[in-house]
Amino acid sequence: MSPDTKVSLTIEDIAFGGEGVARLNGFVVFVPFVLPDEVVEAEITEVKKKFARARLLRVLRASPDRVAPECRYFGDCGGCQYQHVGYAAQLRIKHKQITDLFQRIGGFAGSAIEPVVPCLQQYGYRNRIMVRSQWDKFKKGLNIGFIRHDNRLVLDIEECKIAGPALNEQINRVRAEPPAKGGLKVALRVAP
């Protein structure tokens, strides 16, 4: 197995942090933006001693829990990992992750972990975000937004679907009065 190799994978589980876990000839491969039991075509991007990472090319057999993401930046922005997952399935995945973690590290019985309490709002709930700016030499302007999913570059965004309306107004204020060059890193917070 080497980078740029295209493979067909069956996703077995979701790791803490949202990446899908598959095995190729016994070797673990992590793939973002997938769901358990999906069959996907992926391209290996990185090979380590004990695992590999791959980029999702296409879903060959989708999970019934897959939904269309609300955010146009999903998949590029590094802020969200689960927007392609229906909310009930998100709660099940997160409960399983916490249960597995407490069992493995703390030795707790699985029944000791209560179900995840659902949020009343699936979008617009976040009251704190970290906005960054970075000079984009190709467009000769600033990108103002969040760190991309696949590298350390800033993705230029106009709004964040999970941030509350007041935070999105603040993003626009930063965009209206940007710093001269990149390097801005500002935490925006709204009191609940």
Number of helices: 2
SSE-based structural type: alpha+beta
Q: Fraction of residues in helices?
A: 10-25%
Unreliable residue runs: none
Order of helices and strands: EEEEEHEEEHE
Rg for CA atoms: 19 Å
Strand order of the largest sheet: 1-2-3-5-4
Largest sheet: 5 strands, mixed, barrel
Tell me the β content.
Answer: 25-35%
Shape, principal axes of CA atoms:
globular
Q: How is this structure best described in words?
A:
The protein is α+β, with helices and mostly antiparallel strands. Among the domains are: 6-61, Beta Barrel (OB fold (Dihydrolipoamide Acetyltransferase, E2P)), CATH 2.40.50.140; 128-189, no CATH class. Helix content is 17%, strand content 33%. The chain has helices at 87-106, 165-176; strands at residues 6-14, 20-24, 27-31, 39-47, 51-61, 128-136, 141-147, 154-156, 185-189. The strands form two sheets. It has a five-stranded mixed barrel. Strand 1 (6-14) and strand 2 form a beta hairpin.
